[in-house]
Design goal:
The chain is mostly helical and about 400 residues long. The protein has helices spanning about 5-10, 15-40, 45-50, 55-105, 110-145, 150-170, 175-195, 205-210, 215-220, 225-260, 260-290, 290-310, 315-330, 335-340, 350-375, 380, 385-395. Residues about 1-10 and about 205-210 have low confidence and may be disordered.
Length: about 400
């Protein structure tokens, strides 16, 4: 594709329309993070209302994970049939409905209703995640500059806001059911508005691309065998595991590994999340200035140094420096992987779906594996597995190189 043809394909989208598109995607990312986090913040209340054991709460989390994996795996076929706009609108509404059902399950002490709500919420979230990443990647192309890390920063802002809403609801004694019902109504309405601001992912297609036959289910499954998909998936796998293991284990690693108090351990997670959010905001400029491959290699090095420092530091203060480097270095792998997966418009939906599935499997399966290893060798030494996979990102980073405009 020549640059002149690519530019011609953007003529119909003026600057205001593209900025509005970007803002619509911002809103979807923000609302998705807020919805999930506002529920997660109430899990202690959910446990108390149900009188559930830790094992039973694990099954609640598993129900959402099952729905998410189904949504991720099926998303390429859904996107091929309905497009990213309708997929975002419908499946975010499904996420909201699932959260309402789960909240009512808590209020009625109904495990079947809670489980059904969690599966629906997971299905909605997994599918919405792929759709918003695909639509965001195309919006990034329309803007002509890096913006995907900022989309993911808005997800982080949403998780912070959702945690705050959950904490406030707990303080005020608001039930889980009423909280989720009100949030669902507000956020679904906001997302429907945001989706109206976006454009279809084929908005930038040239005439030649538009005339190509639609992909078949076999074509969409074939991307799993492509070296580019596998290598980009390894990038996302390593960085998603770095993020997921920190979210689940960094506080405990500080308490058990460095003998800190629970409060100090919790502060470690705050440092990690803050550093990751800063990295995503700053990453927009850094990626435009230096390009994907050098930045991925540098961030993999930073994350590796951070993990090694956290694991081996004899001092708590130095371990906190390590956590900050860990968060900063882990911040860009997932969003850059999404952008790279969407570089080829003809295979964007299938590749984004495949890469997102790999990433979320790392999020969901990786931390329990780290926990199992931690039982055997200690949580700090178990994190060496994460260190190895993060270091691997530096070697496979060329797979994310920006595609040439000449095709």
């Amino acid at each position: 594709m020549s640059e002149s043809i690519l530019n011609a394909s953007r003529v119909e989208l003026d600057r205001a329309a593209v900025v509005r598109w970007r803002n619509g995607v911002f809103l979807v990312f923000l609302a998705t993070g807020l919805t999930f986090s506002s529920w997660a913040a109430r899990l202690p209340r959910v446990r108390d209302e149900l009188g559930a054991t830790t094992g039973q709460m694990g099954l609640v989390v598993l129900a959402m994970a099952i729905g998410s994996i189904v949504g991720l795996v099926a998303s390429s076929h859904v996107l091929a049939r309905f497009g990213s706009q309708r997929t975002m609108a419908f499946f975010f509404a499904l996420l909201g409905a699932g959260m309402v059902a789960a909240g009512m399950g808590v209020e009625l002490v109904s495990y079947p209703l809670l489980a059904a709500g969690m599966v629906l919420a997971g299905l909605g979230m997994g599918t919405t995640d792929v759709a918003m990443n695909l639509n965001g990647a195309v919006a990034e192309r329309a803007l002509g500059r890096t913006v995907m890390p900022l989309f993911h920063a808005f997800f982080s802002f949403g998780t912070m806001g959702g945690a705050g809403i959950g904490a406030l609801a707990e303080l005020l004694g608001v039930g889980v059911g009423p909280q989720m019902a009100v949030l669902a109504v507000v956020l679904v309405a906001a997302v429907l508005v945001g989706v109206r601001w976006t454009q279809h992912e084929n908005s930038l297609d040239t005439r030649a691309e538009a005339d190509e036959p639609a992909s078949t289910a076999r074509d969409r499954l074939a991307v799993w065998r492509q070296p580019a998909t596998i290598l980009i998936g390894l990038i996302v796998l390593g960085m998603a595991l770095a993020e997921g293991s920190a979210n689940d284990w960094v506080a405990l690693a500080m308490v058990d590994g460095h003998q800190t108090s629970n409060a100090v351990g919790g502060a470690g997670l705050v440092v990690f999340v803050t550093a990751m959010t800063v990295g995503r905001v700053a990453g927009v400029w850094v990626l435009d200035r230096f390009g994907r491959v050098p930045v991925l290699r540098a961030t993999a090095l930073v994350a590796s140094v951070g993990l090694a420092t956290t694991i081996f530091s004899p001092w708590t203060s130095l371990a906190f420096v390590g956590i900050a480097l860990w968060g900063l270095g882990s911040s860009l792998g997932f969003p850059v992987g999404m952008s790279a997966a969407a570089d080829d418009p003809r295979q964007a939906a299938a590749r984004v779906s495949a890469v997102a599935t790999i990433g979320y499997v790392a999020f969901l399966v990786g931390p329990p594996v780290i926990g199992f290893l931690g039982e055997q060798v200690g949580i700090l030494h178990a994190l060496l597995v994460v260190l190895v996979l993060v270091a691997l990102v530096a070697f496979v980073a060329p797979a994310a190189r920006e595609q040439s405009l000449e095709r």
